Protein 1
Amino acid sequence: MTGPASAVVLAGGKGRRLGMDKALLELWPGVPLLARVVETVARLCPEVVVVTDTPLRYASLNLPVRWAVDPLPGRGPLGGLVGGLEAVSHPYALVVACDLPFLNPSLLASMLSLPRDYDALVPRWGGRWQTLHAVYSRACLAPARTLLGQGDTGLLALLQHVRVRPLPPRRVRAYDPEGLSFFDLDTPRHLRQALARASSLPPGEA
């Protein structure tokens, strides 16, 4: 059984390896990356929460979102997940990072349509868990808080303490054959690759 889900966009990273704020990057002129990601998930979810430790930095974007504070800024995504799940109105939330320029709405919609018999629905791609492109239940809050109290701030540790439903690569390929949904902007090389890809696509396509 499914129903409405919230969306959580994690915008707490400092972009140290990239040397700039990833959320404000414009792969398409006039379209900051955070705005693009918010627009994509807002098509699918009635509520969007952006988690960051610097909401004033993004105030001029006038995004149709609610803001939540990262309780442990700069210390990894688990704190951002906790901040987001604490703020949402629905039992489940689609959670994505703000530096995913090529999100695929059809893949995200497929994920949200699956029966919610899990605490975390996480794609597998390239032999890795794609934890920043996943659906999480608010049932993850208690174990996540425990892990934070123990000093663990990674999402992989959380998967060991909740009911995980993997989304296999074949399901991803049905909507996104190249796995571009998981392409993130961590380094200058990634940025160059993303700019080359974006130059051949309108802002609304991936």
Protein 2
Amino acid sequence: MGEPAPSSSLAARFSIPWAVSASLVLGRTDPSAFDANALADERIHALARRVEISTDPEMSPRRADAPTAHVRLVLRGGKILERTTSVVRGDALSPVPRDEITAKFVSLAGAILGEPQARKVVDVVEDADALGDVGALTAMLVP
């Protein structure tokens, strides 16, 4: 997870330096941040080489009251930006907003199903309690 120069899209998805750098350079961490174009982006490579990762035994995910991550950015001018969290985004204590989840689903599924079909799937799922047969939903998931 600490490899700053991943050799493939899959390796980039498991590289903390790459994900951090792609997020800062591109402003996103969607699948395109890990595709061939991104892997060829020298700006991401240069920044990823400067990312340092370390562990802190005090930060244990087994303790809800303890920090789980601390990020520190040192900018060129010397300014330092820091943030610590004890709650992972997406946890029940820090849920991802529904509209963000929907947008992510539509962007990922839309690439395969087409955006109109992906939005229809969202509509069906949002009204799943009225769905008489789950087969109707699964049939919608075939391109």
